[in-house]
Amino acid sequence: MKTFMLSLFMMCTMSLYSAEGLKVGDNAIDFSLKNIDGSMISLSDYAKDNGVVVIFTCNHCPFSIAYEDRIINLHNAFASKGYPVLAINPNDPVTVPEDSFEKMIERSKEKNFPFNYVIDETQSIAKQYGATRTPHVFLLKKQSNNTFTVAYIGAIDDNHSDVSSVKQTYLSNAIDALIAQKNPAPESTKAIGCSIKWKK
Amino acid sequence: MNLLCALLFGIFVLGTAQAQVEIVTLARLEKVMSSSKDTVYVINFWATWCKPCIEELPYFEEAHTFYATSNVRILLVSLDMPSELERTLVPFIEKKKLQSEIVLLNEPDPNIWIDKIEPTWTGSLPATLIFNGSSKKRMFFEKQISKEELFSTIQQMKE
User: What's domain B21-158's architecture?
Assistant: First the structure.
Protein backbone atom coordinates (compact mmCIF):
# COMPACT_ATOMS: atom_id res chain seq x y z
CA MET A 1 0.00 0.00 0.00
CA LYS A 2 2.81 2.30 0.95
CA THR A 3 4.59 1.69 -2.36
CA PHE A 4 1.31 2.13 -4.20
CA MET A 5 0.69 5.49 -2.52
CA LEU A 6 4.25 6.49 -3.23
CA SER A 7 3.83 5.55 -6.89
CA LEU A 8 0.55 7.42 -7.07
CA PHE A 9 2.21 10.47 -5.56
CA MET A 10 5.06 10.17 -8.04
CA MET A 11 2.66 9.87 -10.97
CA CYS A 12 0.77 12.95 -9.78
CA THR A 13 3.90 15.04 -9.37
CA MET A 14 5.14 13.83 -12.75
CA SER A 15 1.95 14.80 -14.53
CA LEU A 16 1.99 18.16 -12.78
CA TYR A 17 5.54 18.62 -13.93
CA SER A 18 4.75 17.87 -17.56
CA ALA A 19 1.81 20.29 -17.44
CA GLU A 20 4.18 23.11 -16.50
CA GLY A 21 5.62 25.45 -19.05
CA LEU A 22 4.49 27.48 -22.02
CA LYS A 23 2.28 26.20 -24.78
CA VAL A 24 1.86 27.49 -28.31
CA GLY A 25 -0.18 30.68 -28.18
CA ASP A 26 0.96 31.63 -24.65
CA ASN A 27 2.66 34.93 -23.94
CA ALA A 28 6.43 34.52 -23.77
CA ILE A 29 7.79 35.39 -20.34
CA ASP A 30 10.41 38.15 -20.49
CA PHE A 31 13.74 37.80 -18.70
CA SER A 32 17.07 39.45 -18.12
CA LEU A 33 19.94 37.01 -18.64
CA LYS A 34 23.68 37.54 -18.84
CA ASN A 35 25.17 37.32 -22.31
CA ILE A 36 28.68 36.08 -23.12
CA ASP A 37 29.73 39.71 -23.73
CA GLY A 38 28.68 40.61 -20.17
CA SER A 39 25.58 42.55 -21.20
CA MET A 40 22.08 41.67 -19.97
CA ILE A 41 19.64 40.45 -22.65
CA SER A 42 15.84 40.72 -22.50
CA LEU A 43 13.11 39.97 -25.00
CA SER A 44 12.48 43.71 -25.12
CA ASP A 45 15.91 44.04 -26.79
CA TYR A 46 14.34 42.34 -29.81
CA ALA A 47 11.61 44.95 -30.29
CA LYS A 48 12.90 45.76 -33.78
CA ASP A 49 12.65 42.12 -34.84
CA ASN A 50 9.60 40.10 -35.90
CA GLY A 51 10.35 37.25 -33.56
CA VAL A 52 13.06 35.44 -31.61
CA VAL A 53 14.30 31.88 -32.08
CA VAL A 54 14.90 30.91 -28.44
CA ILE A 55 16.93 27.72 -28.19
CA PHE A 56 17.78 26.12 -24.84
CA THR A 57 21.14 24.53 -25.55
CA CYS A 58 24.56 24.09 -23.96
CA ASN A 59 28.21 23.25 -24.54
CA HIS A 60 28.50 19.63 -23.43
CA CYS A 61 25.49 17.80 -24.84
CA PRO A 62 26.31 15.78 -27.99
CA PHE A 63 22.92 16.68 -29.46
CA SER A 64 23.60 20.39 -28.91
CA ILE A 65 27.05 20.00 -30.44
CA ALA A 66 25.58 18.13 -33.41
CA TYR A 67 23.26 21.09 -33.98
CA GLU A 68 25.76 23.95 -33.42
CA ASP A 69 26.51 24.53 -37.09
CA ARG A 70 22.84 24.25 -38.00
CA ILE A 71 21.94 26.84 -35.33
CA ILE A 72 24.60 29.19 -36.70
CA ASN A 73 23.19 28.69 -40.23
CA LEU A 74 19.64 29.32 -39.00
CA HIS A 75 20.70 32.60 -37.42
CA ASN A 76 22.59 33.65 -40.56
CA ALA A 77 19.58 32.77 -42.72
CA PHE A 78 16.85 34.33 -40.60
CA ALA A 79 18.31 37.16 -38.49
CA SER A 80 18.15 39.52 -41.46
CA LYS A 81 14.51 38.51 -41.93
CA GLY A 82 13.75 39.52 -38.34
CA TYR A 83 14.14 36.15 -36.63
CA PRO A 84 17.50 36.03 -34.80
CA VAL A 85 18.58 33.12 -32.62
CA LEU A 86 18.91 33.57 -28.85
CA ALA A 87 20.68 30.60 -27.25
CA ILE A 88 20.08 30.01 -23.53
CA ASN A 89 22.23 27.65 -21.47
CA PRO A 90 20.07 26.37 -18.58
CA ASN A 91 22.44 23.77 -17.10
CA ASP A 92 23.85 23.75 -13.59
CA PRO A 93 27.63 24.22 -13.98
CA VAL A 94 28.19 22.42 -10.68
CA THR A 95 26.78 19.25 -12.27
CA VAL A 96 28.34 19.94 -15.68
CA PRO A 97 31.50 22.10 -15.38
CA GLU A 98 31.69 22.21 -19.18
CA ASP A 99 28.55 24.37 -19.18
CA SER A 100 29.99 27.16 -17.01
CA PHE A 101 29.75 30.79 -18.11
CA GLU A 102 33.51 30.87 -18.81
CA LYS A 103 33.23 27.76 -20.99
CA MET A 104 30.30 29.36 -22.83
CA ILE A 105 32.52 32.31 -23.71
CA GLU A 106 35.26 29.90 -24.89
CA ARG A 107 32.86 27.86 -27.00
CA SER A 108 31.29 30.91 -28.60
CA LYS A 109 34.74 32.19 -29.57
CA GLU A 110 35.79 28.80 -30.98
CA LYS A 111 32.65 28.56 -33.10
CA ASN A 112 32.31 32.29 -33.71
CA PHE A 113 28.66 32.30 -32.62
CA PRO A 114 26.87 35.13 -34.48
CA PHE A 115 23.98 35.06 -31.96
CA ASN A 116 23.58 35.96 -28.29
CA TYR A 117 24.37 33.11 -25.91
CA VAL A 118 23.04 33.77 -22.40
CA ILE A 119 23.11 31.85 -19.12
CA ASP A 120 19.97 31.03 -17.12
CA GLU A 121 21.81 30.97 -13.80
CA THR A 122 18.76 30.42 -11.58
CA GLN A 123 17.22 28.02 -14.14
CA SER A 124 13.91 29.83 -13.58
CA ILE A 125 13.46 30.72 -17.26
CA ALA A 126 13.96 27.12 -18.40
CA LYS A 127 11.44 26.04 -15.75
CA GLN A 128 8.90 28.72 -16.63
CA TYR A 129 9.20 27.98 -20.35
CA GLY A 130 8.95 24.25 -19.70
CA ALA A 131 12.24 23.36 -21.35
CA THR A 132 13.28 19.79 -20.51
CA ARG A 133 16.17 19.02 -22.82
CA THR A 134 18.91 20.50 -24.94
CA PRO A 135 18.41 21.54 -27.65
CA HIS A 136 14.78 22.63 -27.08
CA VAL A 137 13.35 25.36 -29.32
CA PHE A 138 10.73 28.01 -28.49
CA LEU A 139 10.00 30.13 -31.56
CA LEU A 140 8.52 33.47 -30.51
CA LYS A 141 6.41 35.80 -32.62
CA LYS A 142 6.16 39.53 -31.93
CA GLN A 143 2.71 40.98 -31.35
CA SER A 144 1.56 44.50 -32.27
CA ASN A 145 2.09 45.65 -28.66
CA ASN A 146 5.77 44.55 -28.82
CA THR A 147 5.25 41.53 -26.57
CA PHE A 148 5.99 38.02 -27.82
CA THR A 149 3.89 34.87 -28.02
CA VAL A 150 5.01 31.28 -28.52
CA ALA A 151 4.47 30.12 -32.12
CA TYR A 152 6.33 26.80 -32.22
CA ILE A 153 7.93 24.45 -29.67
CA GLY A 154 10.20 21.54 -30.29
CA ALA A 155 12.87 20.19 -32.59
CA ILE A 156 15.18 21.83 -35.11
CA ASP A 157 14.78 19.01 -37.65
CA ASP A 158 14.20 15.25 -37.83
CA ASN A 159 17.76 13.92 -37.88
CA HIS A 160 20.38 14.97 -35.36
CA SER A 161 23.11 12.58 -36.45
CA ASP A 162 23.20 13.18 -40.20
CA VAL A 163 22.48 16.56 -41.77
CA SER A 164 22.38 15.06 -45.25
CA SER A 165 19.53 12.74 -44.20
CA VAL A 166 17.29 15.50 -42.85
CA LYS A 167 13.85 15.33 -44.46
CA GLN A 168 11.84 17.65 -42.21
CA THR A 169 13.35 21.04 -41.36
CA TYR A 170 10.74 21.70 -38.70
CA LEU A 171 12.17 24.93 -37.29
CA SER A 172 13.02 26.70 -40.53
CA ASN A 173 9.60 25.65 -41.91
CA ALA A 174 8.00 27.22 -38.82
CA ILE A 175 9.94 30.48 -39.30
CA ASP A 176 9.03 30.50 -43.01
CA ALA A 177 5.38 30.10 -41.99
CA LEU A 178 5.62 33.16 -39.69
CA ILE A 179 7.29 35.17 -42.44
CA ALA A 180 4.36 34.19 -44.71
CA GLN A 181 1.99 35.29 -41.87
CA LYS A 182 0.78 31.73 -41.33
CA ASN A 183 0.72 29.49 -38.29
CA PRO A 184 3.50 26.87 -38.21
CA ALA A 185 2.34 23.33 -38.92
CA PRO A 186 3.21 21.28 -37.01
CA GLU A 187 3.19 23.78 -34.15
CA SER A 188 5.11 21.42 -31.89
CA THR A 189 7.46 18.48 -32.38
CA LYS A 190 9.53 16.18 -30.20
CA ALA A 191 13.19 15.27 -30.26
CA ILE A 192 15.64 13.30 -28.18
CA GLY A 193 18.04 15.44 -26.21
CA CYS A 194 20.09 15.68 -23.04
CA SER A 195 18.01 16.29 -19.95
CA ILE A 196 18.53 19.75 -18.48
CA LYS A 197 20.85 19.37 -15.51
CA TRP A 198 18.85 20.91 -12.64
CA LYS A 199 20.53 22.14 -9.49
CA LYS A 200 20.41 19.57 -6.70
CA MET B 1 48.62 -18.53 -42.57
CA ASN B 2 49.09 -15.08 -41.10
CA LEU B 3 46.34 -13.79 -43.33
CA LEU B 4 44.07 -16.63 -42.26
CA CYS B 5 44.74 -15.87 -38.60
CA ALA B 6 44.07 -12.21 -39.16
CA LEU B 7 40.82 -13.04 -40.94
CA LEU B 8 39.71 -15.43 -38.21
CA PHE B 9 40.61 -12.91 -35.54
CA GLY B 10 38.71 -10.22 -37.43
CA ILE B 11 35.62 -12.40 -37.68
CA PHE B 12 35.92 -13.24 -33.99
CA VAL B 13 36.13 -9.58 -32.95
CA LEU B 14 33.30 -8.52 -35.25
CA GLY B 15 31.27 -11.54 -34.16
CA THR B 16 31.44 -10.70 -30.47
CA ALA B 17 30.70 -7.04 -31.14
CA GLN B 18 27.65 -7.91 -33.22
CA ALA B 19 26.47 -10.39 -30.64
CA GLN B 20 26.47 -7.77 -27.90
CA VAL B 21 24.46 -5.00 -29.47
CA GLU B 22 21.89 -5.37 -32.17
CA ILE B 23 20.82 -2.31 -34.13
CA VAL B 24 17.04 -2.24 -34.11
CA THR B 25 14.18 -0.09 -35.34
CA LEU B 26 11.01 0.96 -33.55
CA ALA B 27 9.28 -2.23 -34.76
CA ARG B 28 11.38 -4.28 -32.34
CA LEU B 29 10.37 -2.13 -29.36
CA GLU B 30 6.73 -2.15 -30.45
CA LYS B 31 6.88 -5.94 -30.50
CA VAL B 32 8.12 -5.98 -26.90
CA MET B 33 5.54 -3.38 -25.88
CA SER B 34 2.71 -5.43 -27.38
CA SER B 35 3.59 -8.51 -25.32
CA SER B 36 0.67 -10.05 -23.42
CA LYS B 37 2.87 -12.22 -21.20
CA ASP B 38 2.75 -11.95 -17.42
CA THR B 39 6.21 -10.42 -17.50
CA VAL B 40 7.48 -7.11 -16.20
CA TYR B 41 9.37 -5.32 -18.94
CA VAL B 42 11.81 -2.55 -18.06
CA ILE B 43 12.84 -0.52 -21.09
CA ASN B 44 15.49 2.06 -20.30
CA PHE B 45 16.49 4.69 -22.86
CA TRP B 46 20.07 5.81 -22.41
CA ALA B 47 23.30 6.81 -24.15
CA THR B 48 26.99 6.52 -23.30
CA TRP B 49 27.37 10.33 -23.26
CA CYS B 50 24.45 10.84 -20.85
CA LYS B 51 25.83 11.29 -17.33
CA PRO B 52 22.61 10.65 -15.35
CA CYS B 53 22.03 7.57 -17.53
CA ILE B 54 25.42 6.14 -16.58
CA GLU B 55 24.74 6.85 -12.91
CA GLU B 56 21.53 4.80 -12.93
CA LEU B 57 22.85 1.90 -15.07
CA PRO B 58 24.03 -0.11 -12.04
CA TYR B 59 20.42 -0.28 -10.75
CA PHE B 60 19.26 -1.93 -13.98
CA GLU B 61 22.18 -4.32 -13.79
CA GLU B 62 21.25 -5.17 -10.20
CA ALA B 63 17.63 -5.73 -11.20
CA HIS B 64 18.80 -7.94 -14.08
CA THR B 65 20.70 -10.14 -11.62
CA PHE B 66 18.15 -10.00 -8.81
CA TYR B 67 15.23 -10.98 -11.04
CA ALA B 68 17.21 -13.40 -13.23
CA THR B 69 14.84 -16.27 -12.44
CA SER B 70 11.58 -14.27 -12.39
CA ASN B 71 9.42 -12.93 -15.15
CA VAL B 72 11.29 -9.65 -15.40
CA ARG B 73 13.07 -8.53 -18.54
CA ILE B 74 15.46 -5.61 -18.64
CA LEU B 75 16.11 -4.02 -22.03
CA LEU B 76 18.62 -1.17 -22.33
CA VAL B 77 17.94 0.87 -25.47
CA SER B 78 20.97 2.93 -26.46
CA LEU B 79 20.36 6.13 -28.39
CA ASP B 80 24.01 6.51 -29.27
CA MET B 81 24.60 7.31 -32.90
CA PRO B 82 24.89 4.12 -35.00
CA SER B 83 28.29 5.33 -36.19
CA GLU B 84 29.46 5.16 -32.55
CA LEU B 85 28.55 1.48 -32.10
CA GLU B 86 32.03 -0.01 -32.51
CA ARG B 87 34.00 3.01 -31.39
CA THR B 88 32.11 3.96 -28.22
CA LEU B 89 29.19 1.74 -27.27
CA VAL B 90 30.81 -1.71 -27.48
CA PRO B 91 33.98 -0.65 -25.59
CA PHE B 92 31.76 0.99 -22.94
CA ILE B 93 29.72 -2.21 -22.47
CA GLU B 94 32.90 -4.26 -22.21
CA LYS B 95 34.48 -1.86 -19.73
CA LYS B 96 31.38 -1.79 -17.51
CA LYS B 97 30.81 -5.54 -18.07
CA LEU B 98 27.10 -4.91 -18.65
CA GLN B 99 25.02 -8.08 -18.56
CA SER B 100 21.55 -6.77 -19.44
CA GLU B 101 20.20 -7.04 -22.97
CA ILE B 102 21.28 -3.99 -24.98
CA VAL B 103 20.07 -2.79 -28.37
CA LEU B 104 20.84 0.37 -30.30
CA LEU B 105 17.77 2.13 -31.66
CA ASN B 106 18.38 3.48 -35.15
CA GLU B 107 15.21 5.32 -36.01
CA PRO B 108 15.02 8.75 -37.66
CA ASP B 109 12.56 11.48 -36.69
CA PRO B 110 11.99 11.16 -32.94
CA ASN B 111 8.97 13.41 -33.46
CA ILE B 112 7.22 10.34 -34.86
CA TRP B 113 8.51 7.55 -32.64
CA ILE B 114 8.70 9.21 -29.18
CA ASP B 115 4.90 9.37 -28.90
CA LYS B 116 4.64 5.69 -29.82
CA ILE B 117 6.74 4.85 -26.78
CA GLU B 118 5.02 7.28 -24.41
CA PRO B 119 2.96 10.38 -25.29
CA THR B 120 4.06 12.31 -22.18
CA TRP B 121 7.77 11.86 -22.96
CA THR B 122 9.28 15.18 -24.08
CA GLY B 123 12.42 13.45 -25.35
CA SER B 124 15.00 13.98 -22.62
CA LEU B 125 17.29 11.20 -21.42
CA PRO B 126 17.29 9.11 -19.36
CA ALA B 127 13.78 7.74 -19.62
CA THR B 128 12.39 4.41 -18.41
CA LEU B 129 9.19 2.55 -19.25
CA ILE B 130 8.10 -0.24 -16.90
CA PHE B 131 5.04 -2.35 -17.71
CA ASN B 132 3.44 -5.72 -17.25
CA GLY B 133 2.40 -7.42 -20.50
CA SER B 134 -0.71 -9.13 -19.13
CA SER B 135 -2.03 -6.61 -16.58
CA LYS B 136 -1.11 -3.66 -18.83
CA LYS B 137 -0.08 -1.67 -15.76
CA ARG B 138 2.59 0.79 -16.82
CA MET B 139 4.67 3.62 -15.47
CA PHE B 140 6.97 6.01 -17.27
CA PHE B 141 9.85 7.95 -15.75
CA GLU B 142 11.35 10.87 -17.68
CA LYS B 143 14.15 11.39 -15.20
CA GLN B 144 17.00 9.62 -13.48
CA ILE B 145 15.36 6.75 -11.62
CA SER B 146 16.38 5.85 -8.07
CA LYS B 147 17.14 2.28 -7.07
CA GLU B 148 14.13 2.28 -4.78
CA GLU B 149 11.79 3.56 -7.48
CA LEU B 150 13.03 0.93 -9.91
CA PHE B 151 12.70 -2.02 -7.55
CA SER B 152 9.41 -0.89 -5.97
CA THR B 153 7.86 -0.33 -9.40
CA ILE B 154 8.99 -3.73 -10.67
CA GLN B 155 7.65 -5.35 -7.48
CA GLN B 156 4.35 -3.53 -7.81
CA MET B 157 4.01 -4.60 -11.47
CA LYS B 158 4.73 -8.22 -10.54
CA GLU B 159 1.80 -8.36 -8.11
Answer: 3-Layer(aba) Sandwich (3.40)
